[in-house]
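Consider the following assembly input.
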Amino acid sequence: MGAIGRLVRTTAFKLSFVYLVVFSGLTLFLIAYISTNTASLLDRQLDATIATEISSLSEQYRRGGIRQLVSTVELRSRRPGASLYLVSDFSGRTIVGNVADLPLAVLGLPDGNLTQVTYQRLDGDLDRRYDAMVRVFALPGGFKLLVGRDMGELSQLRQVIYDASQYAIVVMVVMGFLSWFFVSRSVLKRVENMAETGHQIMVGDLSRRLHVTGSGDEFDDLAESLNEMLERIERLMTGLKEVSDNIAHDLKTPLNRLHGRLESMLRQSSGDPAEREALEDCLEEADNLIQVFDALLKIARMEAGSSGDSFADLDAADILEEIGELYEPVVEDAGGSLTVSVARPLPIRGNRTLISQALSNLLDNAIKYGRSGDAEDAPLSVVLAGRQDGALVSLSIADAGKGIAPEDRERAMLRFVRLDKSRTRSGSGLGLSMVAAMAKMHGGQLRLEDAGPGLRAVLSLPQATQRQIGRGGENGHKSDHAGDGTPSLAGPSEP
Amino acid sequence: MSGAQSPLQDRGFPVQLDQEAISGRRESMRVLVIEDDREAASYLVKALAETGHVADHAADGESGAHMAETGAYDLLVVDRMLPKRDGLSIVEDMRRRGDQTPVIILSALGQVDDRVRGLRAGGDDYLTKPYAFTELLARAEALLRRNRPAEVETTYKVADLVLDRLSHTVTRGGEEIVLQPREFRLLEYMMRNAGQVVTRTMLLENVWDYHFDPQTNVIDVHVSRLRSKIDKGFAKPLLHTIRGAGYMLREQG
């Protein structure tokens, strides 16, 4: 059903269907027009022929009486393709003619009306009945003259037209399928290729270009102008990258010096506790500054979507279980419990480091805000889950804490937004916006939901298709750490 | 970025850096620092000298490449962005020549692909600026150790602690210690680097294959669990916390 639905939605199908309907309609109209006109022409001809015969025979009668009429009718009856003739006397008895078994009523018809009758030929097969158009003409002296034409020709013509329209419809349907095949094969294939390339470009491979066949048709024009556009976007992106690289370099140089100087002073400090504490505080503040700065740069990069070649085919189930394993002792030490519930497999295409870091941010938040009471040792229960959700893979982290009010959920994902109004707890307010940027970069999204009670953060990422897996095979994830595309976010991890 | 407590407060900055612990029983390294920021370079050179090593400094890519060609160094610390010549191209050239001197690449960039690019160019390790000196030193020493004759041993031994890599068993004083798979890998890494400082980031990278910095002190929790398994009930602790640096597995307290 789904396959048929998809077929019906394709442009090729719609175009071919419209083509078929329009051309069938036109053909039928043409055939109908020709056949009605031909039929009425033939009718008129028949009428004229009969009228001519009657006037010529009645002329014979006037000239030579019934005798001459009879001989003329006999003569004409013998000609090949003769008309039908019948002459009867006043009592209705047939005097001469080449028809038999006419309905009796026919001779009683008034003058001049063409009537359709069935009859038998005297010279032919006696069992077969034929259709004819006849006209009765009353002669002086009570004689009646009947002249008619067989309708065989007319029905043959009808048959020819009927056959022709049948053939025409068959040909139309075949043509419709051919055009569907052609349109979907050659024309729409190109559109599809363009869409596919566009998708890959959006996923992050900005260096790709649309194929220009060189035929100079509209598709080439379209491809060329899109390529120009891509050229421009790539230049802009490179520019952005350069600018952010330069900012990173220029801002980090003084921070680096500051850090170096503080470390050096700390190493040589006299041991005065107050002095050491001040230096340590300075170093800590410098590190926080660097972290915020790095996080901002990283979010900007991820929002620009420049993943480069750092994406690989991954099983999100592994990622979840590994991060769960990393955090389980931490949650337990905090007096809580971490439950990991993962369905397998969860194929996705992405960067393991970025996804792990996002999950780590969410777990940090859950540990920090997920207690189900205000007390330091209130119960802490964190559930890490992964499952397939249609074409999506959804990874979720739920706690049983106070949660986030529905009206604050969107805002919570913005940069520097901290819902903790007193801002007493440490944090930069960049954690969730980094997770949201990561999701966006992977073509997915971050949703905050009510876990009733508590907060559930759901990361929905597109499930990798078989085709994508095939394509990504060459640079698949290696467990060797050097193979992982990695941002070493956060400057100093060690004091 | 959920902050948590500061890593510094959390982990405790040393009152007096235990220089003996960090570099005491090691022969000195000859280090070439290729870094255009003279001030930052001077802190690094000074800190290396303080820890008993000999460091030279080159302020641009060209002179750095020339000095590297002499082959007189045990280790190179190369900044990525350098005047006259890009840091990565120096490393690429060295590797093309067959020069396998360990290289630590420094970068102000901490972006998704930079690390991969640095390692692909032939770097052995990658640090984002600003880095803690102890981190650099620990990594440098791990690299130099790695360059010594290959370790094909199937068992590691520190005092009476024995780790069998083939049967995946750990014993201390003949008594079997049951470890989780990840704890085993953690101990394996620490025993391979026995007598040397391993930082939290090194553990995170080499044992968990994570290249980011979790805000919570996850590594400390894992190490303290491991410690309770291998040291609890034994007179002599083997797993030591080196304040301000990381951990070390060694026989002497």
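Residues 1-25 of chain B have pLDDT under 50 and may be disordered. Ask yourself how this observation constrains the way the partners meet.
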